[in-house]
Amino acid sequence: MKKSILTIALLSVISITNAADYKAGDIVVRGGVTNVTPNSDHSAVMLGGADSTMSLAVDDNAQIGLNFVYFYDKNWAIEVLAATPFTHDVTIYDPNAILNVDGAKLAEVSHLPPTVSAVYYFDTMNNIKPYLGLGLNYTVFFDEGFESAPKSLGLSNLALDGSFGLSIQAGFDFNLNQNWHINTSIRYIDIDTEATFDVGGNNIGKANISIDPTVFSVLIGYKF
């Protein structure tokens, strides 16, 4: 009886092991949760070209993550990262009470960070398939807007430039059967943007923001 149970278990492992192998032409679609955690460093705010002693920081946000992968062979693939728009609170730090808004929520900004990566899957003899990736990201910002309190202080017309940057990632697929798997990954994306805004109707406000987020994803995938 014990030998029969052991035999069934070994056959199950072999079946999953075979299911773990990708091949040329395979297409993988994934969906789940993606969390963007920006670099916590504060970005200096310039007014009229001079350091105002104020700074900005951007908080993290989680959204539905989407992922599409096309395999050229069992090791190499092209991956496209997509998601529903991320929305971040922007906090202003004002230690010298220039505007008396230290620690206040300054604004909200939304962005989409589509990323295309070349991915290399390592050969393994089990159902866990680790990989590394290198890619190019373009982040577009939209719906930038000041909160009502900053508006009352004369701040308006917030705008953030789009950003091109590199992305590096590491992750793995845990195959459940021939088609379904669980994916988890961590990546760093280089996102740098210039924020400009008006103060009292004059276009004198500027901050170079290094968002440079760490992106965590946990997704369910299906192989076609």
TrEMBL record:
GO annotations of cellular component type: outer membrane
Keyword NAD included in the entry's annotation: no
Alphabetical GO biological process terms: transmembrane transport
InterPro entries for this protein: OMP/PagP_B-barrel, OMPW
Residues spanning the signal sequence: 1-19
Gene3D superfamilies in the cross-refs: 2.40.160.20
Family matches, as SUPFAM superfamilies: OMPA-like
Keywords of this entry: Signal
Protein name: Outer membrane protein
